[in-house]
Amino acid sequence: KRQENIRNFSIIAHIDHGKSSLADRLLENTRSVEGRDMKAQLLDSMDIERERGITIKLNAVRLKYTAEDGEEYTFHLIDTPGHVDFSYEVSRSLAACEGAVLVVDAAQGIEAQTLANVYLALDNDLELIPVVNKIDLPAADPDRVGAEIEDVIGLPKEDSIHASAKANIGIEEILERIVKDVPAPAGDPEAPLKALIFDSVFDPYRGVISSIRIMDGAVKAGDKIRMMATGKEFEVSEVGINTPKQLAVDELTVGDVGYISASIKRVGDSLVGDTITGADNPAEAPLQGYKKMNPMVFCGMYPIDSAKYNDLREALEKLELNDSSLQYEPETSQALGFGFRTGFLGLLHMEIVQERIEREFGIDLIATAPSVIYSVDLTDGTTISVDNPAQMPDPQKTERIQEPYVKAQIMVPNDYVGAVMELCQKKRGNFMTMDYLDDVRVNIIYEIPLSEIVFDFFDQLKSNTKGYASLDYDLIGYKESKLVKMDILLNSEKVDALSFIVHKDFAYDRGKAIVEKLKKIIPRQQFEVPIQAAIGQKIVSRTNIKSMGKNVLSKCYGGDITRKKKLLEKQKEGKKKMKAVGSVEIPQEAFLAVLKMD
Ligand code: GTP
């Protein structure tokens, strides 16, 4: 009886279309939380996340809803992260559901992430409930958007619920439709345990807390469990539900969504997508869809103060407990000293980690420009992976270089098609297809090197389309490219941390641009500093940073020691984000200069 009254669902939407606002309304309208307990957007739990206004960590909450048919239903609302870096996590949270509420902004219509999320939902056979949100807006055109949902996604426009999370319109209707349209969970309560892990976070007191959906069987405290991907076994210390506060329960059974803890020390032992089964009575096969996540973007991270190297290692160790897709290994740079080569799912993931290290651990960092992984066939017949441009082998030893490509889907009003195509062309994209979504909006598909997407693509796309374009992309594999390594020499010395990989056809212009840019960024020194860009032995561009002329201290005549100290202090302050490389002081900005080039 109980199983029939469970409904497991997510809300999927493009960024800013109102997912969190709608979740809040559903929570309020089911009286799951007291009004005064309610922080704005309750499901977003991390600070940084709230500041950036995007959902990074997943969560699930149990709601009670008494429907028009008089029955009480148990809803599990599963939150999904809203960024392309985390699409695997999204797909695993959706796998924990039978349905999804598809939110589309009544003024904006379908955007790139709307479609990307719809595909993920369809992959998981979810029942979709279309909701046209923000109908209170003066610019809202819910009929047009309803028609667009019918044309593009194939959900009849009569099925779309017109709603406003802000004005509290349509919320009851959404709750009723969840009852009627989303199927109750299938699954056998008597079968061996199969539980899907769709999120894992590390708690310093209790170890890893994983969010799970029970597909078959049941689990309770004291049970011995096994992680099917890693084979590791643990004893369950607690199972519970989020109301949204964590509440321990005796047992989670088939169809339930809740959390489990089992004195697990690192999230790497309770991986998103893995299946938990009973150690004594294991299921025959795991649930489908588990993938080991591999980082796609790498950068070097170096403490500005070399004495903080060990602190940085400890910070990375701590973060890794909570982040199974973060990778790092020690790396030495001639220019920057001892640091780590760190790998991330994408740029946002990288920025979040860097920010946390600086903010939570108080370590000032120099981070080198992000790089993708190149696959390099050497003349001796071997193939190597290169995630650090400085380590790209000499051209004479290289047979061919391949780089990762993505399929990029860009949606834009047709006035901006020209601007988008120009940008994609400039970024070495290959045009694939272009379709009209309705009479004004176009979906454009390009294949583009991941490195070009990583470097500033999104910002340029936004500025070239006045913010109207939306972007989503998927990795499609490796393709050969004519790439070369560009080295930067300061004072005739190669600065390994400034090396980058560039396409042959753009090498000369890039070399020139970067040298000019560095000249602006690197402050004048006591002496003239030549800057050169070189490919192998060949210098492709050079310029000089003029010397500074006079020393700060020459302003104080003689003995006023406190004044002198103050000046030195001030100078130090200015140098905060600088690293001495040989005899030259280089600011952090210089390492990222290569990213912001045209
Ligand atoms: P991410 O967390 O960034 O993915 O965004 P989201 O989809 O969760 O959107 P969110 O709920 O944060 O809403 C985005 C903005 O739209 C906020 O400023 C909301 O106040 C506003 N908004 C949400 N729903 C409505 C609505 O029905 N009407 C109006 N006028 N504004 C709304």
From TrEMBL:
InterPro entries: EF-4 (IPR006297), EFG_III/V (IPR035647), EFG_V-like (IPR000640), EFTu-like_2 (IPR004161), G_TR_CS (IPR031157), LepA_C_sf (IPR038363), LepA_CTD (IPR013842), LepA_IV (IPR035654). It is an enzyme of class 3 (hydrolase). CDD domains: EF4_II, EF4_III, LepA, lepA_C. It comes from Jeotgalicoccus aerolatus. It catalyses: GTP + H2O = GDP + phosphate + H(+). Transmembrane segments: none annotated. This is Elongation factor 4. Its EC number is 3.6.5.n1. SUPFAM superfamilies: EF-G C-terminal domain-like, P-loop containing nucleoside triphosphate hydrolases. Its main location: membrane. Required for accurate and efficient protein synthesis under certain stress conditions. May act as a fidelity factor of the translation reaction, by catalyzing a one-codon backward translocation of tRNAs on improperly translocated ribosomes. Back-translocation proceeds from a post-translocation (POST) complex to a pre-translocation (PRE) complex, thus giving elongation factor G a second chance to translocate the tRNAs correctly. Binds to ribosomes in a GTP-dependent manner. Belongs to the TRAFAC class translation factor GTPase superfamily. Classic translation factor GTPase family. LepA subfamily. Pfam families: EFG_C, GTP_EFTU, GTP_EFTU_D2, LepA_C. Keywords: Cell membrane, GTP-binding, Hydrolase, Membrane, Nucleotide-binding, Protein biosynthesis. It comes from the Bacteria. Gene3D superfamilies: 3.30.70.240, Elongation factor 4, C-terminal domain, Elongation Factor G (Translational Gtpase), domain 3, P-loop containing nucleotide triphosphate hydrolases, Translation factors. The keyword Hydrolase applies. GTP binds at residues 133-136. Residues 4-186 form the Tr-type G domain. It is found in: Cell membrane. It is a peripheral membrane protein.
